[in-house]
Amino acid sequence: MKRFLVPLSKSDESDESVTSKKIRKSSTTISVNNRHIQNNIFDISQNVENGPNQPNITFPRRNIGGKQRAFNVLWYSKYEWLEYSKMRDSIFCFYCRHFTSDNSGYRDEVLIVNGYFDWKHIGNMLEKHNSSNIHKLSLEKYKSWISAKKTGSVATKLNTQLKEDILKNREIMKSLIRCVLYCGRQDIGLRGHRETNNYIDDNDDDNLKTHIDPFQNNGNFIELVKLLGLENDDFKTKLNTLPKNAKYTSKTIQNEILNVSCKVILKSIVKEIQNGSNFYSIIVDEAKDESNIEQMGICVRYISDNRINERFLGFLELKELHAKALADSIQLFLYSINLDIKNCIGQSYDGASVMSGTINAIHNTIGILEAIYSFQSCSSLRNSLFLESQEDSDKKLKIPQHCEIRWVSKYKGIHFFKIRFKSVIKALKECTLSKKSKEAAEARGLLNQFATFDNLLTIFCLDELLLCINSLSVYLQTKSTDLSKCITLIECTKDQIKSMRTENKFHDLYEKVIKSVEEISGEISIPVTEKRKKECIIKTYRLFCDKFYRTKSNGQHF
After folding, report:
1. CA distance linking residue 395 with residue 482, whole number of Å
2. Dihedral, CA atoms, 199, 204, 209, 210, nearest 10 degrees?
3. Rounded distance, CA 171 to CA 169, Å?
Protein backbone atom coordinates (compact mmCIF):
# COMPACT_ATOMS: atom_id res chain seq x y z
CA MET A 1 0.00 0.00 0.00
CA LYS A 2 2.84 2.37 0.84
CA ARG A 3 4.13 2.37 -2.74
CA PHE A 4 0.92 4.09 -3.82
CA LEU A 5 1.27 6.93 -1.29
CA VAL A 6 4.76 8.15 -2.27
CA PRO A 7 6.23 9.65 -5.45
CA LEU A 8 7.10 7.25 -8.27
CA SER A 9 10.33 5.29 -7.89
CA LYS A 10 13.00 5.08 -10.59
CA SER A 11 11.62 1.72 -11.73
CA ASP A 12 8.17 3.22 -12.16
CA GLU A 13 9.61 6.14 -14.05
CA SER A 14 10.62 3.81 -16.82
CA ASP A 15 6.96 3.49 -17.86
CA GLU A 16 6.61 7.21 -18.41
CA SER A 17 7.16 8.83 -21.74
CA VAL A 18 10.16 10.95 -22.62
CA THR A 19 7.88 14.00 -22.74
CA SER A 20 6.68 13.36 -19.20
CA LYS A 21 10.28 13.16 -17.99
CA LYS A 22 11.03 16.55 -19.52
CA ILE A 23 7.91 18.07 -17.99
CA ARG A 24 8.71 16.74 -14.54
CA LYS A 25 12.09 18.50 -14.58
CA SER A 26 10.27 21.79 -14.46
CA SER A 27 8.12 22.85 -11.54
CA THR A 28 5.60 25.44 -10.48
CA THR A 29 4.28 26.81 -7.20
CA ILE A 30 0.63 26.79 -6.25
CA SER A 31 -0.96 28.37 -3.21
CA VAL A 32 -2.94 26.30 -0.74
CA ASN A 33 -4.72 28.61 1.68
CA ASN A 34 -1.92 31.18 1.62
CA ARG A 35 0.85 28.56 1.78
CA HIS A 36 2.94 27.68 -1.23
CA ILE A 37 3.39 24.08 -2.40
CA GLN A 38 5.98 23.15 -4.96
CA ASN A 39 4.14 21.26 -7.68
CA ASN A 40 5.33 19.74 -10.94
CA ILE A 41 1.91 18.85 -12.32
CA PHE A 42 0.57 21.16 -14.99
CA ASP A 43 -2.56 19.40 -16.23
CA ILE A 44 -4.71 19.86 -13.10
CA SER A 45 -6.32 23.04 -11.75
CA GLN A 46 -3.81 25.78 -11.04
CA ASN A 47 -6.33 28.01 -9.23
CA VAL A 48 -9.78 27.67 -7.71
CA GLU A 49 -11.44 29.59 -10.53
CA ASN A 50 -10.69 26.78 -13.00
CA GLY A 51 -12.61 24.08 -11.10
CA PRO A 52 -11.50 20.41 -10.92
CA ASN A 53 -9.86 18.96 -14.02
CA GLN A 54 -11.92 15.85 -14.99
CA PRO A 55 -10.90 14.56 -18.42
CA ASN A 56 -12.94 11.73 -20.04
CA ILE A 57 -10.34 9.69 -21.88
CA THR A 58 -9.16 6.13 -22.29
CA PHE A 59 -7.28 5.88 -19.04
CA PRO A 60 -3.95 3.98 -19.03
CA ARG A 61 -3.75 0.63 -17.21
CA ARG A 62 -1.30 -0.42 -14.52
CA ASN A 63 -0.31 -3.83 -13.21
CA ILE A 64 -1.63 -3.72 -9.66
CA GLY A 65 -2.08 -6.96 -7.63
CA GLY A 66 -1.49 -9.10 -10.70
CA LYS A 67 -4.22 -7.39 -12.74
CA GLN A 68 -4.33 -4.53 -15.24
CA ARG A 69 -6.27 -1.79 -13.55
CA ALA A 70 -7.24 1.81 -14.58
CA PHE A 71 -9.17 4.83 -13.28
CA ASN A 72 -12.93 4.75 -13.97
CA VAL A 73 -14.74 7.92 -15.10
CA LEU A 74 -17.74 6.96 -12.93
CA TRP A 75 -15.83 8.11 -9.87
CA TYR A 76 -16.35 11.75 -11.03
CA SER A 77 -20.09 11.54 -10.53
CA LYS A 78 -19.75 10.04 -7.06
CA TYR A 79 -17.02 12.39 -5.87
CA GLU A 80 -17.30 15.79 -7.58
CA TRP A 81 -14.11 17.01 -5.94
CA LEU A 82 -11.96 14.47 -7.85
CA GLU A 83 -9.56 15.68 -10.53
CA TYR A 84 -7.30 13.53 -12.69
CA SER A 85 -3.79 14.15 -14.00
CA LYS A 86 -2.99 12.46 -17.31
CA MET A 87 0.68 13.24 -16.84
CA ARG A 88 0.89 11.42 -13.52
CA ASP A 89 -2.02 9.01 -14.04
CA SER A 90 -3.11 10.01 -10.52
CA ILE A 91 -6.09 11.56 -8.77
CA PHE A 92 -6.22 14.62 -6.50
CA CYS A 93 -8.75 16.35 -4.22
CA PHE A 94 -9.71 19.74 -5.66
CA TYR A 95 -11.04 21.10 -2.33
CA CYS A 96 -8.05 20.05 -0.25
CA ARG A 97 -5.52 21.29 -2.81
CA HIS A 98 -6.90 24.83 -2.66
CA PHE A 99 -8.43 25.14 0.82
CA THR A 100 -6.48 22.85 3.23
CA SER A 101 -5.00 24.69 6.22
CA ASP A 102 -1.41 24.36 7.41
CA ASN A 103 -2.35 22.42 10.55
CA SER A 104 -4.19 19.75 8.59
CA GLY A 105 -1.96 16.92 9.83
CA TYR A 106 -2.07 15.41 6.35
CA ARG A 107 1.60 14.62 6.38
CA ASP A 108 1.97 12.89 3.02
CA GLU A 109 -0.54 15.19 1.37
CA VAL A 110 -1.36 12.36 -1.05
CA LEU A 111 -4.36 13.97 -2.70
CA ILE A 112 -2.75 17.41 -2.61
CA VAL A 113 0.77 17.01 -3.98
CA ASN A 114 1.78 13.46 -4.82
CA GLY A 115 -1.47 12.03 -6.18
CA TYR A 116 -3.04 8.57 -5.69
CA PHE A 117 -3.13 5.77 -8.26
CA ASP A 118 -3.86 2.50 -6.36
CA TRP A 119 -6.90 1.63 -8.44
CA LYS A 120 -7.44 -1.63 -6.45
CA HIS A 121 -8.16 0.19 -3.19
CA ILE A 122 -9.48 3.46 -4.62
CA GLY A 123 -13.01 2.93 -3.27
CA ASN A 124 -11.93 2.66 0.36
CA MET A 125 -9.47 5.50 -0.06
CA LEU A 126 -12.04 7.90 -1.50
CA GLU A 127 -14.69 7.01 1.07
CA LYS A 128 -12.23 7.50 3.91
CA HIS A 129 -11.05 10.84 2.56
CA ASN A 130 -14.58 12.06 1.84
CA SER A 131 -15.62 11.48 5.47
CA SER A 132 -12.46 12.96 7.02
CA ASN A 133 -12.70 16.18 9.05
CA ILE A 134 -9.92 17.74 7.01
CA HIS A 135 -11.83 17.25 3.78
CA LYS A 136 -15.09 18.49 5.31
CA LEU A 137 -13.35 21.67 6.53
CA SER A 138 -11.95 22.27 3.04
CA LEU A 139 -15.44 21.73 1.59
CA GLU A 140 -16.91 24.35 3.94
CA LYS A 141 -14.22 26.79 2.94
CA TYR A 142 -15.00 26.15 -0.70
CA LYS A 143 -18.71 26.74 -0.12
CA SER A 144 -17.93 29.97 1.73
CA TRP A 145 -15.81 31.07 -1.20
CA ILE A 146 -18.66 30.37 -3.62
CA SER A 147 -21.10 32.28 -1.41
CA ALA A 148 -18.73 35.22 -1.07
CA LYS A 149 -18.27 35.24 -4.81
CA LYS A 150 -22.00 35.62 -5.33
CA THR A 151 -22.98 37.95 -2.50
CA GLY A 152 -19.59 39.31 -1.48
CA SER A 153 -17.59 38.71 1.64
CA VAL A 154 -17.64 41.02 4.65
CA ALA A 155 -14.49 42.70 3.40
CA THR A 156 -16.00 42.96 -0.07
CA LYS A 157 -19.21 44.44 1.30
CA LEU A 158 -17.23 46.96 3.31
CA ASN A 159 -15.21 47.74 0.23
CA THR A 160 -18.41 48.13 -1.79
CA GLN A 161 -19.82 50.54 0.79
CA LEU A 162 -16.57 52.46 0.74
CA LYS A 163 -16.75 52.77 -3.05
CA GLU A 164 -20.34 54.01 -2.81
CA ASP A 165 -19.29 56.62 -0.25
CA ILE A 166 -16.43 57.71 -2.48
CA LEU A 167 -18.74 58.08 -5.48
CA LYS A 168 -21.26 60.05 -3.39
CA ASN A 169 -18.55 62.34 -2.02
CA ARG A 170 -17.17 62.90 -5.50
CA GLU A 171 -20.59 63.94 -6.76
CA ILE A 172 -20.83 66.44 -3.90
CA MET A 173 -17.31 67.68 -4.60
CA LYS A 174 -18.16 68.22 -8.27
CA SER A 175 -20.99 70.57 -7.30
CA LEU A 176 -18.83 72.38 -4.75
CA ILE A 177 -16.02 72.76 -7.27
CA ARG A 178 -18.47 74.23 -9.77
CA CYS A 179 -19.55 76.77 -7.13
CA VAL A 180 -15.93 77.78 -6.49
CA LEU A 181 -15.14 78.04 -10.20
CA TYR A 182 -18.30 80.06 -10.79
CA CYS A 183 -17.22 82.63 -8.20
CA GLY A 184 -13.72 82.70 -9.65
CA ARG A 185 -14.89 83.07 -13.23
CA GLN A 186 -17.28 85.88 -12.31
CA ASP A 187 -14.55 87.59 -10.27
CA ILE A 188 -16.57 87.67 -7.05
CA GLY A 189 -15.36 86.93 -3.55
CA LEU A 190 -16.09 83.53 -2.04
CA ARG A 191 -16.23 84.23 1.67
CA GLY A 192 -18.36 86.45 3.84
CA HIS A 193 -17.82 87.97 7.26
CA ARG A 194 -19.08 84.81 8.94
CA GLU A 195 -19.53 81.33 7.52
CA THR A 196 -21.82 79.40 9.85
CA ASN A 197 -22.40 76.49 7.40
CA ASN A 198 -26.13 76.36 8.16
CA TYR A 199 -27.71 74.28 5.41
CA ILE A 200 -31.24 73.29 4.53
CA ASP A 201 -32.46 70.17 6.33
CA ASP A 202 -34.74 67.54 4.83
CA ASN A 203 -37.59 67.94 7.32
CA ASP A 204 -39.83 70.64 5.92
CA ASP A 205 -39.97 74.04 4.31
CA ASP A 206 -40.13 75.78 7.69
CA ASN A 207 -36.35 75.39 7.84
CA LEU A 208 -36.10 78.20 5.30
CA LYS A 209 -37.03 80.63 8.04
CA THR A 210 -34.52 79.11 10.44
CA HIS A 211 -31.54 78.60 8.18
CA ILE A 212 -31.79 81.52 5.76
CA ASP A 213 -31.52 84.69 7.79
CA PRO A 214 -32.12 87.81 5.63
CA PHE A 215 -29.80 89.79 7.92
CA GLN A 216 -26.91 87.31 7.69
CA ASN A 217 -24.78 86.77 4.60
CA ASN A 218 -22.33 83.88 4.69
CA GLY A 219 -20.56 84.85 1.49
CA ASN A 220 -21.14 84.02 -2.15
CA PHE A 221 -19.85 80.45 -1.96
CA ILE A 222 -21.94 79.30 1.03
CA GLU A 223 -25.02 81.11 -0.26
CA LEU A 224 -24.57 79.47 -3.68
CA VAL A 225 -24.31 76.05 -2.02
CA LYS A 226 -27.54 76.76 -0.15
CA LEU A 227 -29.21 77.73 -3.41
CA LEU A 228 -28.17 74.42 -4.97
CA GLY A 229 -29.66 72.63 -1.98
CA LEU A 230 -32.97 74.40 -2.48
CA GLU A 231 -33.09 73.57 -6.18
CA ASN A 232 -31.71 70.01 -6.02
CA ASP A 233 -33.11 67.62 -3.42
CA ASP A 234 -30.54 64.92 -4.20
CA PHE A 235 -27.64 67.30 -3.59
CA LYS A 236 -29.28 68.59 -0.42
CA THR A 237 -29.76 65.06 0.94
CA LYS A 238 -26.22 63.98 0.16
CA LEU A 239 -24.74 67.15 1.66
CA ASN A 240 -26.74 66.83 4.88
CA THR A 241 -25.63 63.19 5.36
CA LEU A 242 -22.00 64.27 5.54
CA PRO A 243 -20.51 64.63 9.02
CA LYS A 244 -20.23 68.16 10.33
CA ASN A 245 -16.44 68.03 10.28
CA ALA A 246 -16.34 66.91 6.63
CA LYS A 247 -18.68 69.20 4.69
CA TYR A 248 -15.90 70.19 2.23
CA THR A 249 -16.97 73.83 2.48
CA SER A 250 -14.40 75.32 4.84
CA LYS A 251 -12.11 78.16 3.78
CA THR A 252 -9.22 75.68 3.67
CA ILE A 253 -11.06 73.46 1.19
CA GLN A 254 -12.09 76.53 -0.85
CA ASN A 255 -8.46 77.63 -1.13
CA GLU A 256 -7.35 74.09 -1.96
CA ILE A 257 -9.93 73.84 -4.75
CA LEU A 258 -8.73 77.14 -6.17
CA ASN A 259 -5.08 76.09 -6.01
CA VAL A 260 -5.73 72.71 -7.62
CA SER A 261 -7.90 74.30 -10.32
CA CYS A 262 -5.15 76.82 -10.98
CA LYS A 263 -2.61 74.03 -11.50
CA VAL A 264 -4.96 72.11 -13.81
CA ILE A 265 -5.63 75.21 -15.94
CA LEU A 266 -1.94 76.12 -16.01
CA LYS A 267 -1.00 72.63 -17.21
CA SER A 268 -3.61 72.77 -19.96
CA ILE A 269 -2.26 76.15 -21.16
CA VAL A 270 1.33 74.86 -21.21
CA LYS A 271 0.21 71.71 -23.03
CA GLU A 272 -1.63 73.84 -25.60
CA ILE A 273 1.53 75.88 -26.19
CA GLN A 274 3.74 72.80 -26.51
CA ASN A 275 1.31 71.01 -28.83
CA GLY A 276 1.03 74.12 -30.99
CA SER A 277 3.95 76.06 -32.37
CA ASN A 278 5.85 75.72 -29.05
CA PHE A 279 6.83 79.41 -29.37
CA TYR A 280 5.33 82.16 -27.25
CA SER A 281 5.65 85.76 -26.07
CA ILE A 282 5.29 87.02 -22.52
CA ILE A 283 3.45 90.09 -21.26
CA VAL A 284 4.57 91.29 -17.83
CA ASP A 285 3.22 94.02 -15.59
CA GLU A 286 3.82 94.95 -11.96
CA ALA A 287 1.40 96.47 -9.45
CA LYS A 288 0.50 96.55 -5.77
CA ASP A 289 -2.47 94.67 -4.39
CA GLU A 290 -4.78 95.93 -1.64
CA SER A 291 -2.35 94.71 1.04
CA ASN A 292 0.48 96.78 -0.56
CA ILE A 293 2.35 93.66 -1.70
CA GLU A 294 4.29 94.16 -4.90
CA GLN A 295 3.14 91.59 -7.45
CA MET A 296 4.11 90.89 -11.03
CA GLY A 297 1.45 89.49 -13.35
CA ILE A 298 2.63 87.27 -16.20
CA CYS A 299 0.58 86.56 -19.33
CA VAL A 300 1.52 84.52 -22.37
CA ARG A 301 0.63 85.04 -26.01
CA TYR A 302 0.84 82.13 -28.45
CA ILE A 303 -0.73 80.53 -31.54
CA SER A 304 -2.88 77.40 -31.30
CA ASP A 305 -5.04 75.98 -34.09
CA ASN A 306 -4.15 79.00 -36.23
CA ARG A 307 -5.61 81.33 -33.61
CA ILE A 308 -3.84 83.88 -31.41
CA ASN A 309 -4.45 83.28 -27.69
CA GLU A 310 -3.58 85.36 -24.66
CA ARG A 311 -3.68 83.61 -21.29
CA PHE A 312 -2.94 84.73 -17.75
CA LEU A 313 -0.38 82.47 -16.04
CA GLY A 314 -0.12 83.86 -12.53
CA PHE A 315 1.14 86.44 -10.04
CA LEU A 316 4.63 86.56 -8.56
CA GLU A 317 5.34 88.27 -5.25
CA LEU A 318 8.33 90.59 -5.59
CA LYS A 319 10.92 91.34 -2.93
CA GLU A 320 13.05 93.57 -5.16
CA LEU A 321 12.10 95.80 -8.08
CA HIS A 322 15.32 96.16 -10.05
CA ALA A 323 15.64 94.71 -13.55
CA LYS A 324 17.78 91.67 -12.61
CA ALA A 325 15.38 90.58 -9.86
CA LEU A 326 12.42 90.82 -12.24
CA ALA A 327 14.26 88.89 -14.97
CA ASP A 328 15.30 86.13 -12.54
CA SER A 329 11.74 85.81 -11.22
CA ILE A 330 10.33 85.49 -14.74
CA GLN A 331 12.85 82.83 -15.77
CA LEU A 332 12.30 80.83 -12.57
CA PHE A 333 8.53 80.94 -13.02
CA LEU A 334 8.70 79.79 -16.65
CA TYR A 335 11.02 76.94 -15.63
CA SER A 336 8.64 75.87 -12.84
CA ILE A 337 5.73 75.45 -15.29
CA ASN A 338 7.89 73.62 -17.86
CA LEU A 339 8.10 76.41 -20.45
CA ASP A 340 11.49 76.68 -22.14
CA ILE A 341 12.78 80.26 -22.06
CA LYS A 342 14.56 79.57 -25.36
CA ASN A 343 11.16 79.39 -27.07
CA CYS A 344 10.18 82.87 -25.85
CA ILE A 345 10.34 85.03 -28.98
CA GLY A 346 8.79 88.26 -27.64
CA GLN A 347 8.64 90.33 -24.45
CA SER A 348 6.28 93.12 -23.44
CA TYR A 349 6.56 95.24 -20.29
CA ASP A 350 3.83 97.85 -19.82
CA GLY A 351 4.93 100.99 -18.02
CA ALA A 352 8.60 99.92 -17.87
CA SER A 353 9.12 101.90 -14.67
CA VAL A 354 12.23 99.85 -13.92
CA MET A 355 13.72 101.18 -17.18
CA SER A 356 13.29 104.84 -16.12
CA GLY A 357 16.38 107.03 -15.96
CA THR A 358 17.55 109.81 -13.69
CA ILE A 359 15.79 112.72 -15.48
CA ASN A 360 12.73 113.58 -13.36
CA ALA A 361 11.20 116.36 -15.49
CA ILE A 362 8.75 113.98 -17.26
CA HIS A 363 7.89 112.23 -13.97
CA ASN A 364 7.19 115.53 -12.22
CA THR A 365 5.07 116.90 -15.06
CA ILE A 366 2.91 113.76 -15.36
CA GLY A 367 2.49 113.76 -11.58
CA ILE A 368 1.17 117.35 -11.68
CA LEU A 369 -1.29 116.50 -14.48
CA GLU A 370 -2.56 113.46 -12.54
CA ALA A 371 -3.05 115.62 -9.45
CA ILE A 372 -5.09 118.18 -11.45
CA TYR A 373 -7.30 115.41 -12.86
CA SER A 374 -7.94 114.01 -9.35
CA PHE A 375 -8.61 117.52 -8.00
CA GLN A 376 -11.36 118.31 -10.54
CA SER A 377 -12.89 114.81 -10.75
CA CYS A 378 -13.67 114.41 -7.04
CA SER A 379 -16.20 117.28 -7.12
CA SER A 380 -18.96 117.88 -9.63
CA LEU A 381 -18.69 121.66 -9.03
CA ARG A 382 -15.00 121.68 -9.84
CA ASN A 383 -15.61 119.54 -12.90
CA SER A 384 -18.18 122.05 -14.14
CA LEU A 385 -15.79 124.90 -13.42
CA PHE A 386 -13.06 123.32 -15.57
CA LEU A 387 -15.56 122.89 -18.42
CA GLU A 388 -16.81 126.47 -18.13
CA SER A 389 -13.24 127.79 -18.25
CA GLN A 390 -13.11 126.60 -21.90
CA GLU A 391 -15.80 129.07 -23.00
CA ASP A 392 -13.45 130.66 -25.54
CA SER A 393 -12.86 127.29 -27.26
CA ASP A 394 -14.99 125.80 -30.01
CA LYS A 395 -15.57 122.59 -28.03
CA LYS A 396 -15.51 121.90 -24.31
CA LEU A 397 -13.41 118.87 -23.46
CA LYS A 398 -13.18 116.77 -20.32
CA ILE A 399 -9.76 116.12 -18.85
CA PRO A 400 -8.77 112.59 -20.02
CA GLN A 401 -8.08 110.11 -17.24
CA HIS A 402 -4.45 109.11 -17.02
CA CYS A 403 -3.55 105.41 -17.22
CA GLU A 404 -0.08 104.35 -16.15
CA ILE A 405 0.20 101.45 -18.59
CA ARG A 406 -1.63 102.93 -21.62
CA TRP A 407 0.50 105.24 -23.73
CA VAL A 408 -2.52 106.23 -25.80
CA SER A 409 -4.10 107.71 -22.68
CA LYS A 410 -0.83 109.48 -21.89
CA TYR A 411 -0.89 111.14 -25.29
CA LYS A 412 -4.54 112.20 -24.92
CA GLY A 413 -3.84 113.70 -21.50
CA ILE A 414 -0.69 115.52 -22.56
CA HIS A 415 -2.35 116.88 -25.72
CA PHE A 416 -5.34 118.16 -23.70
CA PHE A 417 -3.12 120.16 -21.35
CA LYS A 418 -1.15 121.52 -24.30
CA ILE A 419 -4.21 122.90 -26.13
CA ARG A 420 -6.11 123.85 -22.95
CA PHE A 421 -3.19 125.19 -20.93
CA LYS A 422 -4.74 128.65 -20.56
CA SER A 423 -8.17 127.23 -19.57
CA VAL A 424 -6.66 125.03 -16.84
CA ILE A 425 -4.82 128.03 -15.34
CA LYS A 426 -8.06 130.00 -15.39
CA ALA A 427 -9.97 127.22 -13.60
CA LEU A 428 -7.29 126.78 -10.93
CA LYS A 429 -7.25 130.55 -10.26
CA GLU A 430 -11.03 130.43 -9.71
CA CYS A 431 -10.58 127.55 -7.23
CA THR A 432 -8.02 129.58 -5.23
CA LEU A 433 -10.89 131.95 -4.35
CA SER A 434 -12.94 129.13 -2.78
CA LYS A 435 -14.28 129.68 0.75
CA LYS A 436 -13.09 126.20 1.60
CA SER A 437 -9.58 126.67 2.90
CA LYS A 438 -8.43 123.18 2.00
CA GLU A 439 -9.70 123.46 -1.56
CA ALA A 440 -8.17 126.92 -2.01
CA ALA A 441 -4.79 125.79 -0.64
CA GLU A 442 -4.72 122.73 -2.89
CA ALA A 443 -5.62 124.88 -5.94
CA ARG A 444 -2.82 127.38 -5.16
CA GLY A 445 -0.30 124.55 -4.87
CA LEU A 446 -1.34 123.03 -8.19
CA LEU A 447 -1.35 126.45 -9.89
CA ASN A 448 2.16 127.28 -8.70
CA GLN A 449 3.50 123.94 -10.02
CA PHE A 450 1.53 123.91 -13.25
CA ALA A 451 1.97 127.50 -14.46
CA THR A 452 5.73 127.35 -15.05
CA PHE A 453 7.78 127.66 -18.19
CA ASP A 454 9.63 124.36 -17.56
CA ASN A 455 6.34 122.49 -17.13
CA LEU A 456 4.91 123.92 -20.35
CA LEU A 457 8.14 123.11 -22.24
CA THR A 458 7.99 119.52 -20.96
CA ILE A 459 4.35 119.21 -22.07
CA PHE A 460 5.26 120.42 -25.58
CA CYS A 461 8.19 117.96 -25.78
CA LEU A 462 6.05 115.05 -24.61
CA ASP A 463 3.28 115.96 -27.05
CA GLU A 464 5.72 115.80 -29.97
CA LEU A 465 7.23 112.48 -28.87
CA LEU A 466 3.95 110.76 -27.94
CA LEU A 467 2.38 111.87 -31.21
CA CYS A 468 5.28 110.22 -32.97
CA ILE A 469 4.71 106.82 -31.33
CA ASN A 470 0.92 106.98 -30.97
CA SER A 471 0.14 105.39 -34.36
CA LEU A 472 2.52 102.54 -33.67
CA SER A 473 1.15 101.99 -30.16
CA VAL A 474 -2.44 101.83 -31.43
CA TYR A 475 -1.58 99.43 -34.25
CA LEU A 476 0.35 97.06 -31.98
CA GLN A 477 -2.79 96.57 -29.87
CA THR A 478 -5.08 95.59 -32.74
CA LYS A 479 -6.15 91.94 -33.15
CA SER A 480 -5.34 91.89 -36.87
CA THR A 481 -1.71 92.91 -36.36
CA ASP A 482 0.56 92.09 -39.30
CA LEU A 483 4.20 91.34 -38.47
CA SER A 484 5.68 92.85 -41.61
CA LYS A 485 3.68 96.06 -41.17
CA CYS A 486 4.73 96.22 -37.51
CA ILE A 487 8.39 96.06 -38.49
CA THR A 488 7.88 98.82 -41.06
CA LEU A 489 6.09 101.07 -38.54
CA ILE A 490 8.75 100.49 -35.90
CA GLU A 491 11.55 101.42 -38.29
CA CYS A 492 9.67 104.55 -39.43
CA THR A 493 9.07 105.56 -35.80
CA LYS A 494 12.73 105.13 -34.95
CA ASP A 495 13.76 107.23 -37.96
CA GLN A 496 11.28 109.93 -36.99
CA ILE A 497 12.64 110.07 -33.43
CA LYS A 498 16.18 110.30 -34.83
CA SER A 499 15.17 113.27 -36.95
CA MET A 500 13.90 115.09 -33.86
CA ARG A 501 17.28 114.94 -32.13
CA THR A 502 18.60 118.20 -33.63
CA GLU A 503 19.15 121.71 -32.31
CA ASN A 504 17.01 123.22 -35.06
CA LYS A 505 14.06 121.01 -34.08
CA PHE A 506 14.43 122.05 -30.47
CA HIS A 507 14.65 125.77 -31.31
CA ASP A 508 11.42 125.49 -33.29
CA LEU A 509 9.76 123.82 -30.33
CA TYR A 510 11.20 126.40 -27.93
CA GLU A 511 9.78 129.26 -29.98
CA LYS A 512 6.33 127.61 -29.94
CA VAL A 513 6.45 127.48 -26.14
CA ILE A 514 7.43 131.17 -25.91
CA LYS A 515 4.57 132.09 -28.24
CA SER A 516 2.10 130.13 -26.08
CA VAL A 517 3.41 131.87 -22.95
CA GLU A 518 2.96 135.29 -24.53
CA GLU A 519 -0.66 134.43 -25.31
CA ILE A 520 -1.33 133.86 -21.61
CA SER A 521 -0.53 137.56 -21.02
CA GLY A 522 2.03 137.44 -18.28
CA GLU A 523 0.75 134.41 -16.37
CA ILE A 524 4.13 132.69 -16.87
CA SER A 525 7.50 134.41 -16.86
CA ILE A 526 9.90 133.57 -19.69
CA PRO A 527 13.33 132.58 -18.30
CA VAL A 528 16.54 134.39 -19.19
CA THR A 529 17.85 132.81 -22.38
CA GLU A 530 21.53 132.89 -21.70
CA LYS A 531 23.61 130.54 -23.79
CA ARG A 532 24.29 128.21 -20.88
CA LYS A 533 20.59 128.07 -20.01
CA LYS A 534 19.65 127.17 -23.57
CA GLU A 535 22.41 124.55 -23.76
CA CYS A 536 21.08 122.92 -20.58
CA ILE A 537 17.54 122.85 -21.98
CA ILE A 538 18.77 121.41 -25.29
CA LYS A 539 20.62 118.67 -23.39
CA THR A 540 17.46 117.78 -21.48
CA TYR A 541 15.46 117.60 -24.72
CA ARG A 542 18.03 115.27 -26.26
CA LEU A 543 17.83 113.03 -23.23
CA PHE A 544 14.05 112.81 -23.72
CA CYS A 545 14.53 111.72 -27.32
CA ASP A 546 17.31 109.26 -26.43
CA LYS A 547 15.13 107.61 -23.81
CA PHE A 548 12.25 107.05 -26.23
CA TYR A 549 14.61 105.87 -28.97
CA ARG A 550 16.30 103.29 -26.69
CA THR A 551 12.90 102.10 -25.53
CA LYS A 552 11.79 101.50 -29.11
CA SER A 553 15.07 99.83 -30.00
CA ASN A 554 14.57 97.38 -27.13
CA GLY A 555 11.22 96.36 -28.64
CA GLN A 556 9.06 97.38 -25.70
CA HIS A 557 5.29 97.50 -26.12
CA PHE A 558 3.30 100.65 -25.39
Report:
1. 36
2. -50
3. 5
